[in-house]
Amino acid sequence: MSTYIDSRHPNQHGDYQDCPSYVVRYLQDSETIRGLSPRTVNGYYIDLRTFFRFLMRSRGLVPEDTPVEEIDIRGIDLAMIQSVTTSEIYEFMYYITRERDNSAAARARKLSSVKGFYKFLTNKMKLLEKNPADDVGTPAQKKRLPKYLSLNESIELLKNIRSDFYERDYCIITLFLNCGMRLSELVNINITDIHEDGTIRIVGKGDKERLVYLNDACISALRRLCEARAKLPNLQDQKALFVSGKTGKRLSARRVQQIVDSCLKTAGLSGKGYSTHKLRHTAATMMYQEGHVDMLALKEILGHAHVSTTEIYTHLGTEQLRQAADASPFAKLDFEKKNLTARKPGKTARAKHQEKAPEEE
Question: Which residues have a catalytic role annotated?
């Protein structure tokens, strides 16, 4: 499925002209007014396009044998958008569950896109009196504990980096593990984002800026990288912090992923499901468990909009769970089976009394 996001230019996209005009207006408002990232808006575009293609097919407005990907939705007008019912949204949810085999997370995201679009039409554009998606419940999702590297694994990763550009790759791993930044944030760091006061400027989702304080390990790694970078014979991108040793151009997100994968492999950590995002999770988990960082401080470091998002990084570690188990007042109790003398079962005194009771009466 094609999208308008170009991997070489993640902050650029097309004009979404294969969608109804009101959908285009919503997407433009999401990016320019709400300040959402192009990638997030692109996700809305894909979800809403799927929804209206489904609507065209379910209402019999296209031949039944028309592939969903080829359904043209540009002709959908305001009247049709306004006529959508809650029942049709439920039918759409059933469709993406049964026919498209979407996971609960994917279904929740698609429903969120539809809800957001109709909320825009209802509250902002005043084109609807009631949002038909309001009463549609969000699919329940299984809560899974995300993977993260242990402290020992993280140390092994740092100790076993093998690279033709060691200073760069060591700095990449160091920033991931110490600052918990996202992949897109690391890739877009410029030399001018590093400040003399020991902070680094990070541009997160929706172009939201934050300052992250650098510890000694980060400062040392950045200093060595900058010295090695200055010696490159063909430095093309003067702004970018992380560049290719061969071309001198800014590294792509995919190239950073390859570097991290290679480092994991040399450290003997491949095949365990670790990735660049798992390094971000590792940083947050270690700060919380080992450094006892406050939840609100962790929220600011990670660039989360809400504390509820940060909570997934503050799960209890195995050591804490072990300590909780040991804290039980029954933890030390252990009684062995007693050897009791075997005796024939007899009647109890109460039973004997009940037998005599009728005679006494």
Answer: 182, 205, 277, 280, 304, 313
